[in-house]
Amino acid sequence: MGYVITEVERHAYDVVVIGAGGAGLRAAIEAHALGAKTAIVCKSLLGKAHTVMAEGGIAAALGNVWPEDNWQVHFRDTMRGGKLLNNWRMAQLHAQEAPDRVLELEEWGALFDRTKDGLILQRDFGGHRFARLAHVGDRTGLEMIRTLQNAAVAKDIDVFMECTLRHLLTDGERVTGAIGYWRPSGKLIAFAAKAVVLATGGVGKAWRVTSNSWEYTGDGIAMALEAGADLIDMEMTQFHPTGMVWPASVRGLLVTEGVRGDGGTLRNKSGERFMFKYIPEFFRTDTADTEQEADAWYEDKKNNRRTPDLLPRDEVARAINAEVKAGRGTEHGGVFLDIATRRSADYIKRRLPSMYHQFMELADVDITKQQMEIGPTLHYIMGGVRVDPDTAAATVPGLYAAGEVAAGMHGANRLGGNSLSDLLVFGRRAGEAAANHSKRAAAPKIDDAQVSAFAERMAAPFEKTGDENPYAIHSALQDTMQELVGIIRRRDELEEALARLERLRARTARVRVTGARVYNPGWHLALDLENLIGVSEAVTRSALVREESRGGHTREDFPKADPDWGAKNVVTRKRDGRLVIATDAIPKVPAELRTLLGEDKPTGEAATGATKTPVAAGDD
Amino acid sequence: MADVQVWVWRGDPSGGDFMPYKVAADEGMVVLDVVHRIQAEKAPDLAVRWNCKAGKCGSCSAEVNGHPKLMCMTRMNEFAPGETITISPVKTFPVIKDLVTDVSFNYEKAKTIPPFKPKPKDPDGKRRMYQEDIERVQEFHKCIECFLCQDVCHVIRDHDENKRSFSGPRFFVRLAALEMHPLDANERIDLIRAKHGLGYCNITKCCTEVCPEDIHITDNAIIPLKERVVSAHYDPLAWAIRRVRGKRDEFAAPEQKQPPSA
After folding, report:
1. Domain residues for A495?
2. Engineered SS bond to A510: which of A243, A387, A468, A566, CB 3.0-4.6 Å?
3. What ipTM was reported for this prediction?
């Protein structure tokens, strides 16, 4: 091809942050503030990362709307929403620090919607006991990313945009940097770094129906695994209950939980509000069992319990799945989400402007007059890189992870709104710990042989003579994960998925890339496939091992939650090029926090939607 | 379903041309779907930027039949059957490859804007702002940085030489957002005239027309900024008052609300 593959642009930093969403930007701002020479490296242009798509809000117990709210209640909601599989310390830090992180955004110019008293307004969301989400209409992520972006630019932090980092460099004991390529030029680039912060998000693009953008290819998870770090909870994937289902071209596109937070309700094709049939025992005491109580709850939370429309996402997604399977779904295989009959057109347009716009422009549906057709869409992975709760340190020295790429905080299921706050809380902590580490660490020694080997691997697809098309392999992967590692899982299907993943890996080895290295998406995807397939295998193997149903992981062949499994993380490691799955005990919740959680344990009895619990009136 | 045919500009800084591609059509398809299908089936190295595919990130800007558009929000059924459809890169910025242009101009301009600097907090340590006082700034915060307003602005679209001294509508929106922010205490007004070239704009409203977020760029951002520059620089009384009392008076809400006593 006429390229000298050993030509690699070199840089040296104290801290390299990979990813420029909420976690990456917040980490970089903190590391820079502590005096570390910091670089942000991101695959897209600055300000385009997936955080920009977040809609509903940032969960933080500010207590502006409900003074009864506090970190203890937020902690309880988060742990129960995660079916108690969460790392309790992360959930505690998150609940305690989220309000400060939100107020800090205001110091940097963010403009959240206001209460009548001029404070930050908060909205209702699934699994949160009180209206807790600071928001800007339904475009909170845009406000957050732009605020952080502007703050990073104002501090003159070095940003390497449209630059994909593909491998971590190591010296056998610790991380020494990272290597990848400039997307526009195709030239290779390597960073020597005393500390690397992964803020690369999740792996949604392994599924067919997903709310995630092309960037979600599991890069950070794959890089950490390759560098020897532990992953946990990889079987825990979140299907957001409300994605668009029609037209085909927008299938999976997110419809904010804010629609239900602001009064919308789910109905099947007969108009029945079916969520009342799917209230699991674990949430029974917190959940309204009549339509009257559910509707009254929006205004009066003291005397009414929460509508089942706002059960945690895993519960709602399974319920929708069950309704559709029972033949009560819509024409295009979803259910209806109705806000038109429940709120005024003015209110809908003011509170949910981008939903109004999205349905009008892309589906010819006026949500102030018509119902939306929605269904579950792969949205998030709770699993990821195992981290120390206080410092976000991975199990390999010099490596940190924050945001979706990290695991533990959300347990088996993440509550809506807890992601943006997670990015801020643990982004800051990761940046702080990475900067402190860099002050103690010696200058990293880059292994030139390792650099050359990775450089050759990245250039290899141009040299191949195979006939495989990377887009076709990606499409086959998405079908595999959608069909076999979806909302409801079982042993034979997971085993079949592993076999198919192996075949896809073999096909990937025969991918031939055409064209030059300048801005070549076919080449980029060919390299992404390795990550996508590798992380998909980690998800599938972990899902096989966990023989119970809990949160984002539902096994048709093990439909109940099992208390033994509830005390374990599934751990994934890469040893000698192969994935090794083990289990580890989850850290025990200290007694003083345990009292906040309630004594009951998740049972998973409504897990597949097959078991319906009778509605007991007056049950409190 | 029937096939669709589009003409996609393929090339690099040395030149290029429109190439015809025919792919199968789907119901509800947008232009970006067609481009993706071309990538998957015909031209794997076709360069295009995109992220959210939902009109929220502003990455997939291009010119469709010469009109600046987000490809993800442009439905194929907007075109008559048989109508020739062309997709080309935005014209104002230099081509890197195919539909991807070098938009670094915008990121360089962003660095020259004095950042938000907050006023002191209320005595109780809180910050209070009222919804009606922030709504006009929230309109500006809707900007997704698609840079279509920059693309269509004739000050720079046809005059590369103006780029040095003119920041373009996107940054007038940004400056207006900062200037009208109820809590901001930074000084920018001299820069707006001298460095960002507000005077070049002769309010033809082309930017407003292409804004996918429906921000009233000209009426709500540019014209108020122009008025502010004029009164700061050419009205001696306003100039003197500003020196003495600080800049906020001109943009203060008509009625300043007080925090509730209880």
Report:
1. 452-562
2. A468
3. 0.93
